[in-house]
Amino acid sequence: MRRVRLERDLPVPMADGVSLLADHYAPAGGRPAPVVLMRSPYGRRGLFGLFARGFARQGMHAVIQSCRGGFGSGGLLDPLGDEHDDGLATVEWLRRQPWYGGSFAMFGPSYLGYTQWAIAPYAGPDLKAMATQITASQFRDAAYVGGAFALESALSWTTLTDGMLRRFGGTAMWTAPRLTRKAVLTGRPVAELDLVSAGRPLRFFQDLVTHHADPAGPYWSRRDFSPKVGEVDAAVTMLGGWYDVFLPWQLKDYAAMRAAGRRPYLTIGPWYHIDRRHAWPTMVEASAWFRAHLLGDPSRLRPDPVRLYVTGAEEWRDYPDWPVPGVRERRWHLQHGFGLGVEGPREAGPDRFRYHPGHPTPIIGGPTLLSDSRPRDQRRLEQRRDVLVYSSPALASDVEMIGPVRAEMFVRSSTPYVDVVVRVCDVWPDGRSFNVCEGVRRLGPSADDVRRVELDLWPIAHRFRRGHRIRVHVAAGAYPTIARNPGTGDPLGAGGPMVPNDVEVFHSPDLPSAVVFPLCAPRG
Fold first, then answer.
1. CATH topology for the 4-136+224-301 domain
2. What predicted TM-score, i.e. pTM, was given to this entire model?
3. In the prediction, which pLDDT does 523 show?
């Protein structure tokens, strides 16, 4: 095992004169060699230090830098806003170091992955490789998923970063979710919830609330690097989780690279965002990637670029691409009597429920940023009057679905401001009902009485086993994952009255509500 020399707290000058601190892990001898760069708002120690030390032991220099405003770095934290300029200034500093070997790569999960996309199209030809995990080139769509505010994730992350810098240090990862849950249960207006969770207004949380009504405006366009993903020349490998909050947009980045003729690698496991189980695969795959593209040793790369864990089958599969070849779309229709099947629906009246924002429909599980998002039993939720539940007969054989999932619902509501939430579950023979994927779409005024609503659910790779049933929920809330819809159209941060909403869901030959699944032939 090679020895590693560590230099801490190196000042890296930014264009505006601010210095950001970095730690440098040098391989034995310290000679010029390729560099792995990590830029983090979460400090430079712990797991990130272990990653850096591991890269240095393989003969690469590794640099971990604290982003602006945290862990000794100067300036003020402006999440997402400074990473383009600061990242490029850091690369220029790297090139001036005597140990810089003429090429570099970037590494890191979540926000550390976003900092990679922020500079990748502009970093120059010496950027040879990127290893990104549970991340995307833009976070806007995850903040306003389906047009609804991702309340729990937004509040927990801003509470986390504030706690790390001001109050709780390394324990903030566990404290922030608890404070967030406490805040959302108070019932106070959204714009005041940071006062409960952090004890003071949090600038980024307030920005998220303010710019909810203008997701295409200048605030977000400055922070959106997705239009340039296809222009990235570096070799990219992506690791994601089926229960991660960023997965749909990570797969859009993959699709953008494929459309541009690139050949990124993609791994998706049975993981959620803060799942410790993806730390080891992250290191193994990044090491193989950097050895191939920085050190000229491709021996550890797998032949097929796409590796997926198929839940339900509980096995890993390799494929040449995503979406996987041989998949065909199949509509499963909502049926009269709360059935679900591939047959077209017969003539029947709509099913109805009332959504009351004062007592919002809760969520059990589902992708959130700082919580365990593995599937959970939904039977308690299915007993509620504000959740419609449609179930298939027991399956006569295994059914595998691998790819994007979308829903097409025909709904009418007593107020035009309504959320449509669709969830797919796997029901076991003993009655347990586990969520597989879900999606939401927030609606505003429309000239149509009955509206056709299309929404994307989380993608899946799942086997529904023989004897199980496929189940679909339709609701109008998923609190606190998404903020409650007051039914008034008032701005997100406002308090004020809340209006109950009577919702009808149609399933007839003319209005055939359905979930569109990616069906493929089961293996084995």
1. Rossmann fold (3.40.50)
2. 0.97
3. 75
